[in-house]
Specification:
The protein contains two helices and five strands. By secondary structure, the chain is of the alpha+beta class. The protein has one domain: Ubiquitin-like (UB roll), CATH 3.10.20.30. Strands 2-1-5-3-4 form a five-stranded mixed β-sheet. The longest helix has 7 residues. The N and C termini lie far apart (about 40 Å).
Length: about 60
Amino acid sequence: MKIMVNDEVHEVSARTLAALIDELGYSGARIATAMNGDFVPVPLREKTDLRDGAKVEIVAPMQGG
């Protein structure tokens, strides 16, 4: 299925947001996720189904001031 991740099109086999994170190599990283504009907390990623055309944002916290 084709989805947008951080404004780039990806062809993925993942069916959940948690599986997508693994497939893209973010497993174990401290990240925040949103799908179609809505924040998805860690406990809900496994239950959040992906659909063709979904827009996913994956961001890592940055230090600075």
